[in-house]
Amino acid sequence: MDGFQGENAGAAGAVRPMAAAGMHGYLGDLDDLTGVCAFLTEGADYWLPVLPLEGVVLLPGASMPLLTARRAEQSLLRSALEAPPPTTRLIAVMHWPRHWGPV
User: Fold this and answer.
1) Fewest C-beta in 10 Å: which of 30, 32, 76, 90?
2) Please, are residues 88 and 37 in contact by the beta-carbon 8 Å criterion?
3) Number of domains in the chain
4) CA torsion, ordered 93, 80, 48, 85, to nearest 10 deg
């Protein structure tokens, strides 16, 4: 279907390209974080804040908008934003299922 999907149709029936979902344009105006990119040293140990999210799989290099309402999550993100290089703005995202065990 040339990059378009029927289930991706808007309320008025307009079909949006699947690539638009990857840019998170459906969220409206967003502020991009810009700055220095630092590489981590191979074999070195780093402490990263861990953000447990239910039902989320985030692949390396992918981006994900974070909308947080809990103070603990906001504090975690604030600490990541203020961390010294090379871990500035770096967090670990972990899948956290609501129920452990067989489905």
Assistant:
1) 32
2) no
3) 2
4) 130
Residue 102 and residue 56 share a domain: yes
Helix, strand, coil % in the chain, rounded to nearest 5: 20, 15, 65
Is the alpha carbon torsion for 4, 9, 10, 13 positive or negative? positive
Would you say 4 and 39 are in contact if contact means Cβ atoms under 8 Å apart?
A: no
84 and 46 together in one domain: yes
Report pLDDT digits (tens) over 53-101. Answer: 888 878 877 778 888 888 999 999 999 989 998 888 888 888 877 766 5
Which residues form the domain of 77? 31-103
